[in-house]
Amino acid sequence: MSYLLLFLSAFGAATLLPLQSEAVLMTLLVQGRSNPFYLILVATIGNVLGSCVNWWLGLKIEHFKDKKWFPVSEQRLLQAQQIYHKYGFYSLLLSWTPVIGDPITLIAGLMKENFWRFLLIVTIAKGGRYLTLYALYLGLF
């Protein structure tokens, strides 16, 4: 059950939902009832899959930009595209960061970033974050 809770929180946290998978992971690590390797693996998989949803939404988002209910102005959308174009796929290394990470993955889809490159870089970034949290838990920093 703890793995499912972690997966759902990590998946949701990677979308635009305000969830905290880090807190769930740290709580489960402190409780010590689950294998840390599997916790990090489950958190990474959930978070990466949530980012893949963002990428897919980014692919489809332009179809809706002219709708009245669309939450982002065309100017802001263009600005985000220009920033991504400037830094390219390297910006996906920041996909783990709060606030800007989720929109970066969405913009990557909008910019039609190659999915396999997207998946590799996002997995490195998100997995690295969870490994860093585990290292903090172990007191290595």
From TrEMBL:
<dbReference type="Pfam" id="PF09335">
    <property type="entry name" value="VTT_dom"/>
</dbReference>
<feature type="transmembrane region" description="Helical">
    <location>
        <begin position="115"/>
        <end position="140"/>
    </location>
</feature>
<feature type="transmembrane region" description="Helical">
    <location>
        <begin position="37"/>
        <end position="57"/>
    </location>
</feature>
<protein>
    <recommendedName>
        <fullName>VTT domain-containing protein</fullName>
    </recommendedName>
</protein>
<keyword id="KW-0812">Transmembrane</keyword>
<dbReference type="GO" id="GO:0005886">
    <property type="term" value="C:plasma membrane"/>
</dbReference>
<keyword id="KW-1133">Transmembrane helix</keyword>
<feature type="domain" description="VTT">
    <location>
        <begin position="21"/>
        <end position="132"/>
    </location>
</feature>
<feature type="transmembrane region" description="Helical">
    <location>
        <begin position="87"/>
        <end position="109"/>
    </location>
</feature>
<dbReference type="InterPro" id="IPR051311">
    <property type="entry name" value="DedA_domain"/>
</dbReference>
<keyword id="KW-0472">Membrane</keyword>
<dbReference type="InterPro" id="IPR032816">
    <property type="entry name" value="VTT_dom"/>
</dbReference>
